[in-house]
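DEPOSITED CHAIN:
***
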Amino acid sequence: MSHSALIQWKKARSEYEESVKARSKGDAELYRQLVETVKSTMDEKLLTALCMYRWRGVSRDQVTDDRILAEIETIVQSVKNDNLPDVDRLFGKELRLDMTESDVNERVLKYFMLCNQLIEEHGLVTCFDGDHGSKEKCKLLVESLAPAELKQDVKNALRFRAPAARHDEIKLYDLILEKALEQDRDFRRRKRVRYNEPVGKVIENGLRSRRMGA
């Protein structure tokens, strides 16, 4: 099973467990009765390979769900084939604000979610651990911003007003959302002005024509 396939399996497993929790309505005993074990839902070939090669011939009967999940987590968080990609290029190409999303709050939230998705899909989780990792992640989030006006506004705020957001993802989220909302309001205001100008001219011309006709 490939790195990306394991990520999808992990996601599907999490969604499955949440659905079973919803069905059991907080009853822990009922949840244990309903939920299928990790081992029973694991790819047979992958489990066999893990037992033989990773765990040096451990029998399948000895393998617990916790051990399987821990191994999958290790694989998922590792860089693919131990080969670190060009991170700046990767995020510069794939991390974008979805400008087709009309709700600015949703647009910014999806932007941060996409960043997390890219980090997980490419096995870069450990690269963004700790203070240094947080700073690098914030840097990528800023550099990938578009349009250019939004990026510049955020950079100016980071430089002069909110330097702490350079290494604090939550503060950076608040800052980007604030600037995105400001730009959206400004865009809508200018759009109304452009619309009202020709309408005003039509009304003015109509009044002038009436006076001339009188």
Remarks:
- Residues 87-191 form one domain.
- The CA atoms of residues 9 and 15 lie 10 Å apart.
- The chain has a mean pLDDT of 87.
- The chain has ten helices and no strands.
